[in-house]
Specification:
Elements lengths: L4 H10 L7 E2 H7 L6 H9 L11 E2 L14 H11 L11 H4 L6
Parallel strand pairs: 1-2
Helix pairs in contact: 1-3, 2-3
The structure holds a DNA duplex (13 and 13 nucleotides).
Length: 104
DNA sequence: AAAGTGACGCATT
DNA sequence: TAATGCGCCACTT
């Protein structure tokens, strides 16, 4: 396994429990560098592994990503709603209630 | 081999 | 309060 940021991002995102969401910045912070938020997004951008619930990762405002899977943000929002994640708007998640702060 | 680009976030003007 | 710039890593041209 490489020590690349990408690998760590994937491993971390895999640990996000259902019904919860996390942000790029939060993940970057857990990796040890809050400024890696951009890299985190890039990592998930190229991700195709179903093991990595990239739909549970949103930006700092709680807004869904712009270029999700084939169905776009609609699919992402649906997945989150099914898991019980509350929405404050059409494309906005209630981070105050469902933000995953990291592995115990 | 070097420069540009990209699912972001925070500080500053 | 809103808008712009900078920082970080990996990948593409």
């Amino acid at each position: 396994m490489k020590d690349s940021i990408f690998q760590m991002v994937y491993e971390l995102v895999k640990q996000i429990p259902p019904g919860k969401v996390s942000t790029y910045g939060q993940i970057a912070f857990l990796l040890g560098n809050p400024r890696l938020s951009r890299v985190v997004g890039y990592a998930l951008h190229g991700n195709r592994d179903p093991e990595v619930p990239c739909h549970r990762v949103v930006n700092r405002k709680g807004e869904l990503a712009s270029a999700f899977l084939v169905n776009g943000v609609q699919e992402q929002r649906l997945l989150l709603e099914i898991e019980g994640v509350p929405f404050t708007g059409e494309g906005t998640v209630d981070l105050s209630s469902c933000l995953w702060e990291g592995p115990a």
